[in-house]
Amino acid sequence: MSWFSKTFTSTIGRKLLVAVTGLFLCSFLVVHLVGNLQLFKDDGGAAFNVYSHFMATNPIIRTMEIVLVLGFLFHIYEALVLTRRNKAARPTEYAYNRPQDNSNWSSRNMGLLGTVILVFLIIHLWNFFVPARFGGLEGVVVENVEYDNLYLKVVQSFEIWWYVLIYVLGMISLGYHLYHGFQSAFQTLGLNHKKYTPAIQTFGAFFSIVVPAAFASMPLYFFFKDLLN
């Protein structure tokens, strides 16, 4: 086995992969959020449909989608392997165990949170990504150009209470997952410093609240808008 294989199949190597892919996925969340904020424009969905068309047809974006999928797969797989190794290393619980005394709830339940996020992601991709990439959407004309009306699909989905509930639960899980994962990634990368670590932790807490809350505001906005009309 080469040094490369040994490095990235070791526990430390796998933790590094989880950290790097996790931070990469955080950058994707920001980009995705900025684009989705087009939903709040009072233009009948024109800006969002143009944005969605650009994301679906730009060759650079399509290439990055492959990188993104690989990032998700590596992050999920390596996290699962680490979880199994940790359980194998301690097959039985201690007789006296008070984990809440030295760890927060999110750090002890990263597997559960990740599973909820994965389930949400599968439902979300099936509902939006598949129709957007493989057809099945109505057309709409924006400035004499016809686009797929993904905005209509979004509005219709966010008027369904159980889908909104799944979405919000997914974002709550994402928030807890980010709360521990963000600062843990920097720690794994060895970026610990008495001056900068508190700032990283503060920004991580801010990020884990604001980003999921912004995403969750979208289905809630359309659901209550429809409810009040």
From TrEMBL:
Q: Coiled-coil ranges per the record? A: none
- Which Gene3D superfamilies does the UniProt entry name for this protein? Fumarate reductase/succinate dehydrogenase, transmembrane subunit
Keyword Transmembrane helix in the entry? The reply is: yes
What keywords are assigned to this protein?
Membrane, Transmembrane, Transmembrane helix
Q: Does the keyword Transmembrane apply?
A: yes
Q: Which positions, given as ranges, span the membrane?
A: 16-40, 60-80, 110-129, 160-179, 200-224
Name listed for the protein in its UniProt record: Succinate dehydrogenase cytochrome b subunit
Q: Which organism is it from?
A: Nibribacter koreensis
